[in-house]
Amino acid sequence: MSDKPKRAASFQGKPCRQTLPVATPQLLRDICGPAHIHLQMLERAFAEDHLRAESGGGEIVVSGEGESCRLAISVLESFAARIRTGAEASVEEFEAALRMASGLAPATPASITQEAVMGLRKPVLAQTAGQRAYLDLLRQDESGLVFGVGPAGTGKTYLAVAVGAAELKAGKRERLIVARPAVEAGEKLGFLPGDMEDKVDPYMLPIWDALNELLGAQEVERRKERKEIEVAPLAFMRGRTLKNAFVIIDESQNATVPQMKMVLTRLGRGSRMVVTGDPSQTDLPLNSKSGLDHALRILDGVKGVAISRLTAEDVVRHELVARIVQAYDKDAARGAPKT
Description:
By secondary structure, the chain is α/β, with parallel strands linked by helices. It contains twelve helices and nine strands. A six-stranded parallel β-sheet has the order 6-5-7-8-4-9, with helices on both faces. A three-stranded antiparallel β-sheet has the order 1-3-2. Helix 2 (about 35-45) packs parallel to helix 4 (about 90-100).
């Protein structure tokens, strides 16, 4: 696995052995996984250190070379903490524990419990070190405006919706408002069948899917009827002052400079705003400047504004997605003409 935790060269080659006691048989089974698949993944991650991981008698024993034992135990402890927090004992969560252990500031059981977004149908946890830093910004009230930018699959929108939904459910905000530029609709929006909600809903499906997963369809529908949750095109924000709300502007690379200025100045008292987007995937006409690029440039360093830049290393979809993103980044760096 490419997310192998880093080790110090000075300790390479020295034999090591460490033991992790596990409190209950069920937790031991969850950590090991079906047919010990998680332990096998751990061994593959440290294959060059000849790591071996075995379970029995209420403990897991790892042996290998260098710092591999210490790092492997750190991965197992982090995975156990994720399970105790309420995460599924899945391959995906174990991969996340491996990725987090490879960061400059590895996640600890205490930090995992503290950083989890709770109060939803399931806890939401960072899957990468970049997501961990992004979540930290999302939960800081002093950051009234947070930009989360990066390629597809980095969780920038999902994590923002999770924090917004948690604050709504906890009573910290009165409303959760999500807006997206309906670029694909253009002037054809009026010709689509149904009322205005029917016309714009196809463009908002990713947001509704996330909300239904985090809150449940019935609660989403109730809060939607009470106007506590609103998902609408960006143009619907004009002329409004958004008070006591958690506001998310999604796909913001498709907002023009005037649209971005318009929506950023809608922020009212008691509100916070998160702007997400991928500057490399704008669908605007060639003669239109992206409001996201412009805002990132002029607002960088402004008090109360925070910017989180996620990268291909933070992609948590299919592993092929990360390689696709990297290929496009390399192509752009070479200055290849766009087709």
